[in-house]
Amino acid sequence: MNLKYKNGFYVREDIYGGTVLVSQNNLAVVCFGEKVDIEFEKLNQNKIIEYVMGNCFVPKITLVPSSACAFIQYDGAVLTIVSNNLEI
Fold this sequence. Notes:
Elements: E1 3-6, E2 9-15, E3 18-23, E4 27-33, E5 37-42, H1 47-53, E6 57-62, E7 67-73, E8 78-84
Antiparallel strand pairs: 1-2, 2-3, 3-4, 4-7, 5-6, 7-8
């Protein structure tokens, strides 16, 4: 099992050619199709909030042709699909 913990997200790569990111705040990101580039970007925060809550990172996902991502909030009914030249 290729499961990594990175900047508050659990990352599982190469699931049938895709990638799954799961955060601790009830959000999952499923990337499929061709390889996608995932980087984590630190948010600029107030120093007091950063001291109390720690650093906050967000995934920055770059899609290539024939790739797509689905953002799933699994405590509600939010589903957003973003694609790049992939007819779905």
